[in-house]
Design a protein that fits this description.
This protein is 41% helix and 13% strand. The chain is built from eight helices and five strands, in the order αβαβααβαβααβα. The chain has helices spanning 15-22, 39-52, 62-65, 77-96, 110-117, 134-140, 145-150, 181-195; strands at 28-32, 57-61, 100-104, 125-131, 172-175. The longest helix has 20 residues, at 77-96. Bound molecules: adenosine-5'-diphosphate (ADP). The site of adenosine-5'-diphosphate has 16 residues, from helix 2. Adenosine-5'-diphosphate (ADP) binds next to helix 2.
Length: 198
Amino acid sequence: MVKSNVVWHTQSITKEHRQRLKKHKSFVLWFTGLSASGKSTLANALECKLHKMNIHTYLLDGDNIRQGLNKDLDFSKKDRRENIRRVAEVTKLFVDAGIVVLTAFISPYRTDREMARQLFNPGVFIEIYVKCPLEICEKRDPKGLYKKARSGSIPLFTGISAPYEEPVKPEIVVDTQNNTVNEIVDQIIDYLKTKQNL
Ligand code: ADP
């Protein structure tokens, strides 16, 4: 709840000052998709590439954030929303700091992703739908989570016992069934060169 006696304090150094110092714009690459679709793998590979290009980046990864900032949250619809709300607010601070942020969260609900998008100016929130059929994700199962979800030991597992709402108009769609990690990284870099003057 916002307290009426809390007043925003204007700061002299702005996002634009910080961006000038870094010599690039700041924005967010918001990866969304099923578990094991490839969000963390792609975000990590893309961050390596951007780093080599002298871009200042930070990667917020769902599994890691849930061990710290959001360790009090479960996988109910309400807590998933709170998970995304906090991550989006943290992302906003990083973008204000002049950083290119990569986020890797399932973020299964459209309304929650929309809530995140609304925190940013137009063009700053770049939604990347990491598309991969459930059967392929389940076959990959790098952490054995699908197996556990099928056996009933993980409740509310996205794609099995909880919904995933596909993005309607994401800025970028990547297909991890038919393209390699390197091909997809190049696809995203091409987009950024065209749209963000990278
Ligand atoms: P998520 O973060 O979406 O849960 P992960 O990145 O943790 O997914 O796991 C995806 C798994 O799929 C990894 O084991 C990765 O090596 C594998 N994989 C196979 N092909 C691809 C691809 N084209 N893009 C991304 N990941 C892939």
